[in-house]
Amino acid sequence: VLISPWLDHALSDPASLAQEQSDLMLTVTGIRAMGPYYAGFRSTDDPLISPVHASLEDLPPMHIFAGTEELFLADCRRFAKRAEAAGNDHTLRLMPGGQHVAAIFHTREGRAARAQMAVLIGWPA
Predict the structure, then answer these.
(1) DSSP 3-state assignment of 28?
(2) Is 0.85 surpassed by the pTM of this model?
(3) Residue 34 class from Cβ within 10 Å (0-12 exposed, 13-18 middle, 19+ buried)?
């Protein structure tokens, strides 16, 4: 289960710029500044740092939760398309109107997302 994952530490997809207007938590400038800190001695486009550049074959099933108003939406969509092309079992679950990490918020939508996650990973109700 991936919750609003940071999949491209360079935030290179131009579609991310359009999302900045609706994301109340993250900014393009902030994310691009933090990417090299996370990457350390590696490049931000290294697949070990930015999974959007990795080979996605032979991965376990993935469930990606993302808000439609968050900065990482474009990368989540791109990652899901690449997972599909690689034959990976995955789902992209978009939370309409959701911000970054909306699935963990104490809202009706967040509780519903967490309930879905519990079912997906086989946790008892």
Answers:
(1) helix
(2) yes
(3) middle
pLDDT for 124 beyond 80: no
| Closest C-alpha among 1, 2, 5 to residue 74 | 5
pLDDT tens for each residue of 58-117? 999 999 999 999 999 999 999 999 999 999 999 999 999 999 999 999 999 999 999 999
- Take residue 16 and report the two structure tokens written for it: 């991310």
Provide CB contacts within 8 A for 4, sequence distance 6+.
65, 66, 67, 70, 72, 76, 100, 101, 102, 103
For residue 88, give the amino acid letter. N
